């Protein structure tokens, strides 16, 4: 795949001295989905605003499809679609007119079949002649998505697109994302629903305090940093771990009714066989054994805590 978005040493500072971005470097390949995760105030929205031409960088370069965002603004902006967090729409405008207008802003010829297809995919066709003020919050969010898709962008930014919306819209949104990826559209997603990033992203980027902590293939990241837990459920609770079982990898569950053992699946030996033998030697009776794999959310929380330390 070829690189469609290249960010080099991007910085953004404000008059009061606050550094929102501190030398961000990021390369994004055509047709991939990358989820950008970070706590509130990490710099996610600032980064998107700079790439989309809404905010001016202090220094650094950004190119989209080989075009510089500063010297070739029109070419870069025409390649980008943005679904912002805020719902800012003209309340008295009709849905279909709003979407048509967005396409016209980018100098695209009228394409009623395309507009109809977008509105139908977003369940907006029946509302096409309604004024924006007549729509629910979820429907307004759908209009934002339709506007972003109207000029057929090659790079689509989704800044918390499903925050506070219904489950049906989320499902529609991710179905559309899958279709766009199949068409070769590059998608950069920020979300607080980490399970969504885990489900659809190819790569994960973590940003905190204006710096990129890592960008890595999702599966490789989860294999490298993910840990597995074995929960040994006991027939009778313990007040404390027996001395023979004490280990950095083993802890007693909160109510004493289980032992929780953390291990690395990539290791030649996991230690599970020895653990179960030691448990039996202690005369402890097992009720059940359960395994759990750490999630992307667990990894994200760990990374952010490490950065804050």
Automatic annotation (TrEMBL):
Domain ABC transporter: 5-234
InterPro entries (alphabetical): AAA+_ATPase, ABC_transporter-like_ATP-bd, ABC_transporter-like_CS, ABC_transporter_ATP-binding, P-loop_NTPase
Source taxon at top rank: Bacteria
Molecular function, one GO term: ATP binding
SMART domains xref list: AAA
Pfam families assigned: ABC_tran
Keywords: ATP-binding, Nucleotide-binding, Transport
Protein name: Putative ABC transporter ATP-binding protein YbhF
């Amino acid at each position: 795949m070829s690189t469609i978005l290249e960010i080099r040493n991007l910085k953004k500072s404000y008059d009061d001295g606050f550094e929102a971005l501190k030398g961000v470097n990021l390369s994004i390949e055509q047709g991939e989905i990358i989820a950008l995760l970070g706590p509130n105030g990490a710099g996610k929205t600032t980064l998107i605003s700079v790439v989309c031409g809404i905010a001016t960088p202090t220094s650094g370069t950004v190119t989209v499809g080989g075009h510089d965002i500063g010297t070739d603004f029109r070419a870069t902006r025409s390649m980008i679609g943005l679904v912002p967090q805020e719902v800012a729409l003209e309340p008295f405008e009709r849905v279909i007119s709003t979407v048509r207008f967005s396409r016209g802003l980018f100098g695209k010829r009228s394409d009623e079949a395309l507009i109809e297809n977008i509105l139908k995919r977003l369940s907006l066709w029946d509302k096409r002649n309604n004024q924006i003020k007549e729509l629910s919050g979820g429907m307004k969010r759908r209009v934002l998505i339709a506007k972003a898709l109207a000029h057929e962008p090659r790079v689509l930014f989704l800044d918390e697109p499903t925050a506070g919306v219904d489950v049906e819209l989320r499902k529609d949104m991710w179905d559309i994302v899958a279709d766009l990826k199949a068409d070769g559209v590059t998608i950069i997603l920020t979300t607080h629903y980490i399970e969504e990033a885990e489900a659809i992203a190819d790569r994960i980027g973590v940003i905190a305090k204006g710096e990129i902590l890592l960008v890595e293939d999702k599966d490789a990241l989860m294999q490298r940093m993910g840990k597995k837990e074995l929960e040994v459920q006991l027939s009778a609770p313990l007040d404390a771990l027996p001395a023979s079982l004490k280990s950095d990898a083993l802890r007693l569950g909160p109510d004493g009714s289980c032992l929780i053992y953390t291990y690395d699946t990539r290791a030649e030996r996991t230690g599970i066989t020895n653990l179960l033998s030691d448990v039996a030697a202690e005369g402890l009776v097992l009720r059940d054994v359960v395994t759990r794999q750490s999630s992307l959310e667990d990894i994200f929380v760990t990374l952010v805590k490490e950065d804050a330390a």
